[in-house]
Amino acid sequence: MNFGICSLSVVPVRSSASDKSEMVSQLLFGEMVELLEKKGTWAKIRCTWDNYIGWIDVKQVKLITPSEFKLYKNNHSCSLELVQPAISDDYYLPITLGANLPNYDGLRFSVNGSSFSFSGQVITPAKVIANAELVLKIARRYLYAPYLWGGRSPIGIDCSGFTQVVFKLVGLNLPRDAYEQVEKGKLIDFIEQSQDGDLAFFENRKGKISHVGILLPEGQIIHASGQVRIDKIDHYGIFNPEKEKYTHRLRVIKRILPLQAKGISKPNDLEQVDENQVRMF
Known about the structure:
There is one protein chain. The protein is mostly beta strands. It folds into two domains: 2-123, SH3 type barrels (Roll), CATH 2.30.30; 132-255, Alpha-Beta Complex (endopeptidase fold (from Nostoc punctiforme)). It is built from five helices and 24 strands. It has helices at residues 66-74, 132-140, 159-168, 178-181, 275-280, and strands spanning 2-6, 10-14, 23-28, 32-39, 42-47, 53-57, 61-64, 76-79, 83-87, 92-96, 100-102, 108-111, 114-117, 122-123, 152-153, 156-157, 186-188, 199-203, 209-216, 220-225, 227-233, 237-240, 245-255, 270-271. It has a six-stranded antiparallel β-barrel with strand order 18-19-20-21-22-23. Strands 6-5-4-1-7 form a five-stranded antiparallel beta sheet. The radius of gyration is 19 Å and the shape is globular. It starts with a strand and ends with a helix. 38% of the residues are buried.
């Protein structure tokens, strides 16, 4: 198998081998792929953590060995900063919220022979126990990020990219698209039985799942529609107060989070963060 790692801030994943084709997803820095096929300067890839398949420009990833792949897969943290530079000896590289930091030791990380320092706030998904409090704190960091079809970064994100990356940061893998995400988790029969951090799915006029968001307290939902925003939700769907109408019809609610309780379980779950920063998070 041939493996690669995203070596730039954000790389488009396209539906076919052309810069003019639709962007269907993105790779964030440090995310890894398996190279399935090559066509000129393009490669068909499978994202190794969610199995999403698409096409990328091969110049935008670096090849890595199977041993490097195994090392990075089992030993990485993720950035919690909207945008923060990683500093090498001779250049700065902007790292976005949700990006992987391979082999991060609290001060530096290394990728494919290049070493970077990183002073931003990070989280190590393998060291946290996922809970609603943590999910909602991370989700709120994306507020006002513009909607972008196929996007997965705070510079532009779509509804399922938003839920996918938020849950990635607490160590829970979701598929890329809403119609796949709805197959995961435990069915919640009524919205009155829902809990903070549950996923709400919505259908289009054809009855197909076309939208997803994360439930907040007090009958609210955070979701990407035009921008990442907070709206009211009830058993009919999402109510947009600016438009004074329902914009999304509720189909189903699923519980992804395990039934644990509240709070961060270990003192090192959030690295380089003092108590005041956690409260501001």
